[in-house]
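Please supply some protein, with fold tokens.
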Amino acid sequence: MLQKLDLNALQENVFSLIGDRWMLITAGEGLSCNTMTAGWGGLGVLWGRNVATVYIRPQRYTYEFMEQNSCFSLSFLAEEYRPQLKLCGTKSGRDTDKIRECGFQTKTGAGGTPYIAEAELVLVCRKLYYSDLNPSHFLDPSIEKYYKDSDYHRMYIGEITEAYGV
């Protein structure tokens, strides 16, 4: 059962947490939500606040939910959920109810923000800022290989308003 955590007590390695373990970004309201797997993002401090930064391509179904809602959640799951994380990263919520197909339950945090109940760690975030990545600002030309279809991510910065953990 997840319990509310003090963010300052977290001991996680954020590089491993996001880059190796991945996360589910969930946005929406209650049962009307979608989730997607992400291995890109960041955690830190900006504008005197604890923040999470996530990146979502405009063709992703979760993008629509991010645009329509003021909050989102990040759910980090144990390795045993790797198959479900893969499913949520390869199937679209337009075609299937990924949460149900994975056998996940959702709970809600601040502002009615849905998160994945099976997670070991959940961060609930309130959107503060967004910006579309601009390829003319890439200083390393090798970054362009991630955008063969010119489908540049939108970056969202959210203030972490709640944390839950086991």
The chain has a mean pLDDT of 96. The first helix runs from residue 14 to 20. Residues 22 and 39 are 5 Å apart (CA to CA). Helices lie at 14-20, 61-68, 82-90, 98-101.
